[in-house]
């Protein structure tokens, strides 16, 4: 009998069994998350040759990427707030709710927020979080859209499969809608054939055009796959030289005094170092007890088989390539988890202190630079003011003032360096005008010559100064 054929069940029994199975699934979900949280806390994925809990869930437990991500996030949140396990088991919360609540939960608000979120749908919970933790409005923008990005209401964007659910889903707003911005994707099309789609900036586009121009005699402008392949070959060669010291002409180097230093020759020739892709494929070399090799190809680090603290040397046979997670796992196996935890905390504290010292030094450099810039600006302003005053001195000398008198008088116009020259000369000579109380003030020799009609007529000193300036600076 086919256990999945339920046509023989009555309606009441079918509904009863469905509710029982949903309750059982909720209880199983709570227990499952508790197991995931404990495996994650103990890092049991590392001995199984997985670099992360996510890799373990996807490749070992055969969960989908989305299911693994949600369950790991929910498990870690529930480990911090254990009441979530019971809430998931009895149906007060669902996985989506836990993932939405996770960024906002704190020891102070956890009880109240979890109570308010009980039995809420995803949409209702989003509104609850919007009220509790409001975010600023998005900025108003008006942007031109190309015709290719303008779609009729209800029309799916290019490359997006139409609605699969039965019935019709009303659009959010009538009229044209904007297609979502495409994200970079690599999709398999056929055996050994992939589609690459991405958006590039103006600078990258100009580099692409320049590369096409340089290869114009070898490649057609439309042959972008070959151009990309050549660019990746050049980049990979550069990165291999940097990480694995790959070179066709090795040079002898002096041995380093640092015992942790891995010489370039070891990085090139080590049988487990990844310098030769056909040897290990640039992959973590950790192998589990069951014979499974870690699939990690990123964040790879050189590790001493015999720890340096125990006399290990960086030789060809004593250096291996591990991902960061298995490198730390190997250290914990050698020295103990507690010891390595203390070392990591000390290293983090030292790094934080170094960062704070660097930030303080940067602030001090910024203050010194600002002070120097202010001093330069102040010196430049003073020089400009002095230059404006010095420009007046020759004219005062031409009007009959001695050198010391001219400099003393020119100092009066330092307050108006932007004024025209004639106005500055007039300001400098204002000290020779008759004061309000009628005391005698020395008058320059040029202003007291008998040929000066204004003086012969006995006019006031102000008028004599005006006539002298006008006649001297505007002889025509």
Key traits:
6 strands, 476 residues, mainly alpha, single chain, two-stranded antiparallel sheet, 17 helices, 5% strand, DNA Binding (I), subunit A
Characterize the structure shown.
- The chain is mainly alpha-helical and 476 residues long.
- Among the domains are: 11-132, no CATH class; 227-250 and 260-334, DNA Binding (I), subunit A (Orthogonal Bundle); 384-473, no CATH class.
- Helices cover 50% and strands 5% of the residues.
- Helix 13 (337-398) packs across helix 14 (403-410).
Q: Percent range for helical residues?
A: 40-55%
Biggest pleated sheet: 2 strands, antiparallel
Give the averaged pLDDT, no decimals: 77
What proportion of the residues form beta strands (DSSP E)? 5-15%
Shape descriptor? extended
Strand order of the largest sheet: 1-2
Number of helices: 17
- Low-confidence stretches are 147-180, 271-279, 434-462
| Terminal residue distance | 124 Å
SSE sequence, one letter per element: HHHHHHHEEEEHHHHEEHHHHHH
Rg over CA atoms, rounded to whole Å, is: 41 Å
Structural class: mainly alpha
Please give the number of β-strands.
6
Q: Can you summarize this structure?
A:
The chain is mostly helical and 476 residues long. 50% of the residues lie in helices and 5% in strands.
List the helices and strands and how they pair.
Layout: H1 11-42, H2 53-60, H3 65-80, H4 83-89, H5 95-101, H6 110-116, H7 122-132, E1 150-151, E2 177-178, E3 185-190, E4 193-197, H8 202-214, H9 224-244, H10 264-269, H11 277-280, E5 300-304, E6 319-323, H12 324-335, H13 337-398, H14 403-410, H15 421-429, H16 453-456, H17 461-473
Antiparallel strand pairs: 1-2, 3-4, 5-6
Helix pairs in contact: 1-3, 1-4, 2-3, 3-5, 5-7, 12-13, 13-14, 13-15, 14-15, 15-17
